[in-house]
Amino acid sequence: MNAADFSLDPRLAADTHAVADLPLSRLLLMDDARYGWLILVPRRAGLRELSDLPRAEQHRLLEEIEIARTALGALGPYDKLNLGALGNIVEQLHVHVIARRRDDAAWPGPVWGHGARVALDPETLAERLRRLRGALPP
Asked: pTM for this one?
């Protein structure tokens, strides 16, 4: 399980844009204009469950969830932070970090299965990436 053998699941690659590589994880922006939605994917091959990570890397992933939460604040205020590591469709270990607002398209239900994804237009994508990257620690 090392970073040299890591490859991003094609379904994640198709639905996201790279924000940055953190010490453990690749930070991705979900291509859906309806939500502030980040995904953390530990850069280790063969991971399916959080428990597949060594204990120290489990803790590191929690720290990176906090980094993602802070970065989402740069996109604007939100009412609730949703975290999810489902893996029922994409088995590669990944953690969704979603800033929810009471006026968002799916509130108060889950974002999964609620309508069709609304792709980010190029200008909005560039602005979100700029804000997110600017909110990351050096």
From this structure: 0.95
